[in-house]
Structure formats: C-alpha cells, structure tokens
Design goal:
The protein is an alpha/beta fold. The protein has helices spanning about 15-30, 50-55, 65-75, 95-105, 125-140, 150-160, 170-185, and strands at about 5-10, 35-40, 60, 80-85, 110-115, 145-150. Helix content is about 45%, strand content about 15%. The chain is globular. The two termini are about 25 Å apart.
Length: about 190
C-alpha cells in the first residue's frame, strides 16, 4: 500500500531532477510510511525523463505544457492517500517531509505548503519580493510555490489544480482546499 505520492512536474529539468529525487529518497528513509515518486514529463526535449527513471521515479507524460495540467496528470497516476507536489528544482529535507506526513496523518489537516528558501545567494529585489510573499501567504493562509500537499480525497473533491490559468493555479487550489477543510471539519 502506498501512503504518499510525491508528484514532480518537469519540463527540461535534466540539471535538477536527479538531485531532487536523491534528496526525496533520502528524506523518505526517515519516515515509516511508503511513498512513490512520480515525475510528470511535461514535453521535455532533454533527458529529464531518462534521469528520473534512473533515479527510481515513475515517469508519466503530459504533452500539453502547463504546470497545472502536469500536476493533475501526476495526481491521476498517484496511488497514495496523501499527495505532495514538489517542483523539479526543489530540495526537500527529511524534517519537512516528516512534518508534512505527521500533519496529514493527524486527520486534522486538508492540505498546506512550506515557506520557500533560496539555496543560493540572490539579489536584493528577489529577497525583498520573497519576504513580502512569505508574509502575504502566511497572513492569507495560502499555500503556494514549490511545495504543496493535500489529502488525496480533498484534492479530488476540489477538482485539483485549475487548468484554465497558466499561473497562480496553486492559489486556486489553496482556496478550494480551505473551503473543503471548513466543510469537513479540517484545517
């Protein structure tokens, strides 16, 4: 039985996907749950899919290049009762994965996300924007960015990621999950 599915949309991510999957595998060793890693090849023209397969990921294809559709395609293939969406260039620590699974196992949480941190130095405007975004998303309780998670049943019942938009699809999902959570006595 698969407890959680990590879904990674990827378009031409051969420079990052291997590291991301290695870190996820290491993080998964620190949990008692069984997970699967699904890379959604979003019509890449490089070796992203091959590298993902070499790192033990299930690779599915979504030819239409849109992150919302790629994430939804991965979710349709997922067998886990919990879904975790990670960008292909994102490092997930064992602590973050463990905390996510603990929250979801509590049965009190419908979904959420994590704050973004850059792993390399960046210029002041990027730092300032990130700081502003972190404050806004925390105040508004919006999970957005490179790491999101949800109960699979909540995700399916809310319709998943909004495919009519090409950006901010995670904000739509976050709002819909919040509505689902309230209706179902969750957070």
């Amino acid at each position: 039985m698969i407890d959680y599915s990590v879904i990674i949309p990827a378009f031409n991510e051969e420079d990052h996907i291997g590291k991301t999957l290695c870190q996820l595998h290491l993080a998964s060793l620190k949990t008692d749950l069984t997970g699967e890693f699904i890379v959604v090849d979003n019509n890449s023209t490089d070796t992203t899919a091959l590298i993902a397969e070499q790192h033990g990921a299930i690779v599915v294809t979504e030819p239409f290049r849109q992150i919302a559709r790629a994430r939804n395609t991965g979710a349709k293939s997922a067998q886990g009762r919990f879904l975790i969406f990670v960008d292909a260039d994102t490092t997930v620590s064992p602590k973050l994965l463990k905390k996510t699974l603990k929250l979801l196992l509590s049965e009190k949480i419908a979904g959420g996300g994590a704050m973004v941190e850059f792993d390399t130095p960046c210029h002041f405007p990027a730092k300032a924007f990130l700081c502003l975004w972190q404050r806004l998303s925390k105040a508004a309780r919006l999970a957005a960015g490179c790491y999101l998670y949800a109960r699979a049943d909540a995700f399916k019942q809310t319709g998943g990621f909004e495919e009519r938009v090409f950006a901010s699809e995670e904000l739509h999902l976050s709002f819909n999950l919040r509505c689902w959570a309230i209706a179902n006595g969750k957070r």
